[in-house]
């Protein structure tokens, strides 16, 4: 059992201990919600995690939970839990900007599937968090509105694209958060900020109401302080949704209780693979050392390790940056300056429909969005389609097959999340290719559609956070979260 | 090898994508795209003959549902979010010369 946490400090609070404290009436949901808003007002001026706060609505929702509790109504694990939401997910009646000028004045008219589920669980939404424009980036420097700073070092990036959500959880400005992961946008910022981040199996979570970046790669997932909390959040948002035709329940029925209450006897029998391709040149010594320490801890639980090979890993970044822009160029075609949101001043010489389009998109999209839309237009254009797009899809099949083959030998794959810890603000903005290569260890899981969780690895006092990654078989989040929770018990001593 | 993208093709692509670029943006973009395309070149070294492409995120196959009434489809959400409207009419900027 967990020892009772000191309830005055938001630092100590997890979703689990919040729930226990709430039921024991150590505090009310409203008190904790207000405490978070106080802390956000104090801290977020320097961090910049939030784009918008929903203070009034949050207080009303928290009071409703307190009333339900006073009446002894049954409350779920997330009732009253204050969460942060990446500003790429629609919440009815709230502004949703995707971090872009082109959606600056857009107000969502329906709830994303995940928001509807969290509302049913009576979770509290503190606000919307910053991101790279349309989730295009690895540092949250591409937001049209502000940059977000890493809570561990304000001179460094929090990672991206879900940098606001990761920083909010790391700085104790929310108990948990939702982000999206298309090529690492949950796992990379989780690793950079020292929190847990889960990218679920493609299809495990509904994408309804998610502003699409690349539809064949996007997945919504949780950030949390602990693996257990991430499991609680994931269980709440997972499952088939009729409004997303690619969503699906696990083939054996549904996600069971094992997500949150793993059977450690079973977990111990899992075999973990270590892919040589993820530990080669380019990975910093400090990262290798921390990740190896985490591996040894897992090994000490009598979980066995085995070498595996994912031979096409080195082609993943190139294939991804062909497939992704291709989908981007199609998905972002809907932002025409007429629907959703308008650019207030289009300037002179706007005479016809075409002028409205080119001027709105020219003014509304930032540099990275333009780069990817035009790159996507190129790789899909006649004469180049086969050489780039069709080729990349074949490479994607080979990368997926690498995982299929590896998972015949092992149940879970162990790897670093990123080759380096958080880099400096401005360090990679002038070189898009260098920025793309920081996703080298996260992209393959998206291309293959498999689940992966980033978990903080041990680091020396004062050093930047480092994350390790557990990659699982499709719809076997229970395996990676199971090992993660087992690991967490040892390192947290709980 | 000459890059498949030059100033002329970039301007054409920007037209196709309906994005106005100023000369400075154009120059920067051309440089970036040439570098990125150069990096893509490493895929050409990989033999993919006969590999069936993976065309989506899932191996689920498309099926047709029964043609019956469905509730909860977010019907009307598109027009509800329209920037300007009067009653049930949607207002768009003047688009004719």
From TrEMBL, chain B:
Record note on quaternary structure: Heterotrimer of A, B and C subunits.
Described purpose of this protein according to its UniProt entry: Allows the formation of correctly charged Asn-tRNA(Asn) or Gln-tRNA(Gln) through the transamidation of misacylated Asp-tRNA(Asn) or Glu-tRNA(Gln) in organisms which lack either or both of asparaginyl-tRNA or glutaminyl-tRNA synthetases. The reaction takes place in the presence of glutamine and ATP through an activated phospho-Asp-tRNA(Asn) or phospho-Glu-tRNA(Gln).
Family (UniProt): Belongs to the GatC family.
Name used for this protein in its record: Aspartyl/glutamyl-tRNA(Asn/Gln) amidotransferase subunit C
Alphabetical list of InterPro entries matching this protein: Asp/Glu-ADT_sf_sub_c, GatC
Catalytic activity entry: L-aspartyl-tRNA(Asn) + L-glutamine + ATP + H2O = L-asparaginyl-tRNA(Asn) + L-glutamate + ADP + phosphate + 2 H(+); L-glutamyl-tRNA(Gln) + L-glutamine + ATP + H2O = L-glutaminyl-tRNA(Gln) + L-glutamate + ADP + phosphate + H(+)
GO molecular function: asparaginyl-tRNA synthase (glutamine-hydrolyzing) activity; ATP binding; glutaminyl-tRNA synthase (glutamine-hydrolyzing) activity
Positions in coiled-coil regions: none
One Pfam family linked to the record: GatC
Enzyme Commission number(s): 6.3.5.-
Highest rank taxon of the organism: Bacteria
HAMAP family for the chain: GatC
EC class: ligase
This protein's UniProt keywords: ATP-binding, Ligase, Nucleotide-binding, Protein biosynthesis
BP terms from Gene Ontology: glutaminyl-tRNAGln biosynthesis via transamidation; regulation of translational fidelity; translation
């Amino acid at each position: 059992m967990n020892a009772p946490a000191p309830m005055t400090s938001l630092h100590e609070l997890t979703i689990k201990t919040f729930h226990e404290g709430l039921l024991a009436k150590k505090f009310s949901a409203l008190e904790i919600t207000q405490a978070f808003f106080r802390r956000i007002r104090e801290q977020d001026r320097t961090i910049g995690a939030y784009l918008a706060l929903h203070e009034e609505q949050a207080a009303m929702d928290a009071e409703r939970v307190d009333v339900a509790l006073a009446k002894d109504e049954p409350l779920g694990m997330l009732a009253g839990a204050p969460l942060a939401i990446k500003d790429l997910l629609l919440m009815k009646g709230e502004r949703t900007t995707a971090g872009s000028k082109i959606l600056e004045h857009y107000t969502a008219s329906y709830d994303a599937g995940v928001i509807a589920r969290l509302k049913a669980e009576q979770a509290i939404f503190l606000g919307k968090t910053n991101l790279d424009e349309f989730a295009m980036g690895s540092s949250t420097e591409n937001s049209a509105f502000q940059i977000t700073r890493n809570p561990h070092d304000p001179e460094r990036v929090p990672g991206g694209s879900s940098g606001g959500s990761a920083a909010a959880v790391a700085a104790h400005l929310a108990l948990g958060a939702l982000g999206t992961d298309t090529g690492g946008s949950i796992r990379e910022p989780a690793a950079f900020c020292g929190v847990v981040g889960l990218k679920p199996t493609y299809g495990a979570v509904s994408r309804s109401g998610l502003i699409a970046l690349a539809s064949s790669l996007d997945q919504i997932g949780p950030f949390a302080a602990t693996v257990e909390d991430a499991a609680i959040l994931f269980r709440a948002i997972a499952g088939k949704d009729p409004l997303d035709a690619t969503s699906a329940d696990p083939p054996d029925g549904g996600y069971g209780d094992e997500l949150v209450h793993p059977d450690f006897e079973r977990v111990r029998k899992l075999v973990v693979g270590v892919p040589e391709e993820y530990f080669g040149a380019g990975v910093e010594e400090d990262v290798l050392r921390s990740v190896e320490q985490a591996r040894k801890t897992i090994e000490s639980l009598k979980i066995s390790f085995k070498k595996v090979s994912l031979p096409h890993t080195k082609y993943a970044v190139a294939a991804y940056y062909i497939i992704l822009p291709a989908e981007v160029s199609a998905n972002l075609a809907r932002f025409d300056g007429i629907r959703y949101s308008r650019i207030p001043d289009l300037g002179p010489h706007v005479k016809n429909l075409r002028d409205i389009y080119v001027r709105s998109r020219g003014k509304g999209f930032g540099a990275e969005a333009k780069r990817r839309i035009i790159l996507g237009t190129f790789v899909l254009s006649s004469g180049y389609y086969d050489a780039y797009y069709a080729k990349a899809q074949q490479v994607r099949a080979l990368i997926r097959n690498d995982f299929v083959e590896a998972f015949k030998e092992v149940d879970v794959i162990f790897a670093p999340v990123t080759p380096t810890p958080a880099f400096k603000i401005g360090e990679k903005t002038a070189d898009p290719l260098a920025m793309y290569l920081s996703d080298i260890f996260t992209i393959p899981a998206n291309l293959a559609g498999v689940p992966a969780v980033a978990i903080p690895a041990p680091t020396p006092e004062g050093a930047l956070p480092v994350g390790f990654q557990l990659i699982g078989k499709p719809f076997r989040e229970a395996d990676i979260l199971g090992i993660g929770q087992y690991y967490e018990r040892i390192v947290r001593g709980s | 090898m000459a890059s498949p993208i030059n100033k002329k093709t970039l301007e054409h692509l920007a037209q196709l994508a309906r994005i106005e670029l100023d000369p400075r943006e154009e120059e920067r973009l051309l440089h970036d795209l040439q570098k990125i395309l150069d990096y893509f070149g490493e895929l050409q070294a990989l033999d993919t003959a006969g590999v069936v492409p993976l065309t989506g995120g899932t191996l689920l196959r498309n099926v047709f549902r029964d043609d019956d009434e469905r509730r909860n489809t977010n019907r009307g959400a598109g027009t509800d979010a329209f920037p300007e409207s009067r009653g049930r009419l949607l207002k768009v900027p003047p688009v004719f010369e």
